[in-house]
Fold:
Amino acid sequence: MRRSSHSRLASGVAILGSLFSACGGLESGEAAGGSQPRAKPVNVIFVVCDTLRADRMSLYGHFRETTPHLDELARTGTVIEHASAMSSWTLASMSMLITGEIKARADVAVLTTHKHVAEGFSEAGFHTGAIVANPVLDKKLHYHRGFDHFDVQLTSYIEEPASPVIGRGIDWIDSVLSDGRPFFLWLHPVDPHYPFDPDGGARFPEAPEEGARLGAASSLRWGRETFPSPMAPIPEPTALDGEAWARISASRNLYDSEILQFDAAMGELIAALKERKLFENTVIAVTSDHGEGLWERLALPDSPDKDPNVFFPSLYRRHGLMLHEEQTRVPLLFHGPGVPAGVRRPQWVQHVDVVPTLYALANVPLPKPLPGKALFEEEGSDPRGPLISVCSRSFSVTVDERWRAHFPRQHRLRKMDIPVELYDLQADPGERVVVDDPERVEAMEEMLEAWRHRYSPNDPDQPLDREIWAKLQALGYGGEIEFDTQLKPKPQPAPKTQTDR
Structure:
């Protein structure tokens, strides 16, 4: 039985208070190995590798050695074990990651109302540069704000490997060293983004990944039981036997190989910093904007993958429409002055904690109060409020580092009887077995409503225009956001590079 409106309001007020006053950060103090000593001035390199899942990195225990250079970097840095992206597609996620602000909507992502992290560093006297290989993160959406040098690829395709992106970043560093001022550099390679096409093909022996196949089969079984009349037929779980899963495993191998390709470029960056005697005085932060579906979960009943080149479209191979672990758990690694050395921290954090952490490590004051926390300066270990992520189809709410609920958000999903999904992440980290606990779901929904009430005013009302929409379509997006159906894509110009100095 649902509670009265009065009791629901009272509990909502209590939840709202706890949500925004009890957002403790990580434990402070030196861990094993101590903290690396601070020096002034401190440089900052912020690496956001597009579409990089934490669980496919050897840094986070993957069975393939996909990140040997980052593994080595972590030995004298700090790895955050559970970092969560706040959306599962680039524009919504980056609009929060790059500003440290929270937005309760995923359908607008134009940086018009909040300060860009580069603006804070620029105002503090830093040289600021960006080398970005994802073409949607351009001046049209104001991602150039605060940068002295902004270099973004304007091709409509995700194709440039990480090595030349890193190389242009190293060239820019060389160009600003003469006056002794510190620098802030944002590098945004895109290697793991689809299409999975690493230079030289697959780098690893084929592996069956039987656990992933069983998980995908169980997802098909759940879909057939839950959606008896989907818009596209859901195959039998036995359809994944033999050749079908072999093809999927081969594509997962290519994804892993692209991670290895990115990691090799990170090795080039680290070597260049050491050669220039900058390594010890540079903060390096590595994360991703979101993860990627790799055929382990049922595609939404009204959104099978329509890409004719994608095999087995009933299983989800993309990002942006879901918020499960493979979509939102991203790497987060810090190294450099002020960062505890050789530490793996189990606390759960979100992208909004990154900007205040970068400011704190560089001794730059916060330009304004932000909802996140500087991860290495927080006293104690107070429990955090709920971790909430958003996409155009749903919200996810994670509480107590254990429970996660997925709430469908669009009217058509509710009309199709898309259920709320509740998972116990301690017992079921892959989010396979839906838990039946209506009271817990109701309490988490109240937390979500309190969060939406607080942060909806932060959303700008400037929609994405037809030019950006055409770019997104060329990159394979479509249902991740709701667009004005009257807008028609304009013809795309020939590929070129946009560089501002």
In short: Confidence is low (pLDDT under 50) at residues 1-35, 479-501. DSSP finds twelve helices and 14 strands in the chain. The two ends are 62 Å apart (CA to CA). The CA atoms of residues 103 and 458 lie 6 Å apart.
